[in-house]
Write a structure and sequence with these properties.
Layout lengths: L1 H23 L10 E4 L8 E2 L5 H5 L7 E6 L2 H6 L10 E2 L5 E10 L2 E15 L91 E3 L6 E5 L5 E6 L5 E7 L2 E3 L6 E9 L2 E9 L1
Parallel strand pairs: 1-6
Antiparallel strand pairs: 2-4, 3-5, 5-6, 7-8, 8-11, 9-10, 9-12, 12-13
Length: 283
C-alpha cells in the first residue's frame, strides 16, 4: 500500500516538473533569410510558399509542439488575428517587396509565443545573373525550392544570386569558367559532381586574372567608401540585396554612402575593359 502511494506521489511530482518546464520553456522565432523569386511576368507580383520559411524559423525546436502562422502586420501577429489564410500560395500585396511577420506559438499554451519577420521580393532574373557572374539567376536556386534568398554556398550572408564569388575561394565565379565556354556551371575539374565555382577547394590559376584589381575599403563602411586602383574617373554602381540600383556616380577615389541604410550592398566598378563586383556592409 505504501509502495503504491509512493509511486503515485512520484508520478505527481514528475507531472508537476514537466508542466513547470513547459511553462518556462520560452518559444523562439528565428529570423529566416529573405525570400526572393523571379518576376516571370515583370509586374512585381508573384506566388510565395511561405511555409518554406517554417523550418528555419523553428530551428531546433520540436515542430510537433509548435504552431507557425504568417501575418501581413506585426500587430496582427502579436494579438494572433487575421493570419494569412493560405500561406502556401500567398501573392504579395505590394509590388516587388513586402514584409511578412511570423508568429510561433506553443500549441499547449498559445500565450507562450515569439514573432519574427522577413522580406519577400521579386527580381527580374537575368541570364548572366544579377551579380554578372555568368550564372543565370534561376540557376542560382541550388535547392530548387523557388527561393533565391536561401541559397548561400559559402555562408557569408550574401545569397548566391548576388554573390560574385559563390564559394569564397578568392576567384570570381565568372573566372571559374575554365573551359572558356561562357558557362561556369559545367566546369567540374575534380569530377566531384559539384561545379568548381561552388567548391572552395578548386581554385585554378587563370592567365591575366588579378584578384586585387581594385580595393574597396573600409568594409564595413560608415559614411564613405574608398576605391583604390582607379586610373581615372570611373562610373560605379551600388545595388541593394534585392538587386536594385541605389547609387550611381563617377569617381576616382571615394563614394559617399552616408545616405544608405545599414545593410549589405554590392558595388560594381567598370573601367574600360576591366570590371569588378564587390560586396560591402554599411554599419
Amino acid at each position: 500500500m505504501k509502495k503504491l502511494y509512493l509511486m503515485k506521489f512520484l508520478k505527481t511530482i514528475i507531472l508537476v516538473l514537466i508542466s513547470q518546464v513547459s511553462i518556462y520553456s520560452q518559444v523562439i522565432a528565428n529570423q529566416p533569410p529573405e525570400y526572393i523569386i523571379c518576376d516571370d511576368n515583370n509586374d512585381g507580383f508573384g506566388t510565395f510558399n511561405l511555409d518554406l520559411q517554417t523550418e528555419q524559423i523553428i530551428g531546433a525546436q520540436d515542430p510537433l509542439l509548435l504552431e507557425v502562422l504568417y501575418f501581413v502586420t506585426l500587430s496582427d501577429a502579436y494579438v494572433n488575428i487575421s493570419p494569412i489564410p493560405d500561406p502556401i500560395e500567398f501573392v504579395n500585396m505590394t509590388a516587388y517587396q513586402q514584409e511578412i511577420f511570423a508568429r510561433v506559438s506553443d500549441i499547449s499554451n498559445l500565450s507562450n509565443f515569439a514573432t519574427t519577420n522577413f522580406s519577400i521580393g521579386l527580381i527580374n532574373c537575368q541570364d548572366v545573373g544579377e551579380d554578372d557572374d555568368g550564372v543565370s539567376d534561376s540557376d542560382e536556386d541550388l535547392n530548387n525550392n523557388g527561393n533565391l534568398g536561401d541559397d548561400d554556398t559559402d555562408l557569408d550572408g550574401i545569397p548566391n544570386y548576388l554573390d560574385d564569388d559563390d564559394d569564397d575561394d578568392g576567384i570570381l565565379t565568372i573566372d571559374e569558367d575554365y573551359n572558356l565556354n561562357g558557362d561556369p556551371t559545367d566546369d567540374d575539374t575534380d569530377n566531384s559532381g559539384v561545379a568548381d565555382y561552388l567548391e572552395a577547394n578548386v581554385a585554378l590559376s587563370v592567365n591575366g586574372l588579378d584578384l586585387d584589381l581594385f580595393k574597396v575599403f573600409p568594409n564595413p563602411a560608415l559614411d564613405k567608401l574608398f576605391i583604390q586602383g582607379l586610373s581615372k574617373p570611373t562610373k560605379i554602381s551600388v545595388y541593394n540585396v534585392l538587386g536594385r540600383l541605389v547609387l550611381s556616380k563617377i569617381t576616382s577615389s571615394e563614394v559617399d554612402v552616408d545616405n544608405l541604410q545599414s545593410g549589405i550592398y554590392i558595388i560594381k566598378i567598370v573601367e574600360e575593359q576591366r570590371e569588378v563586383v564587390r560586396k560591402f556592409i554599411i554599419n
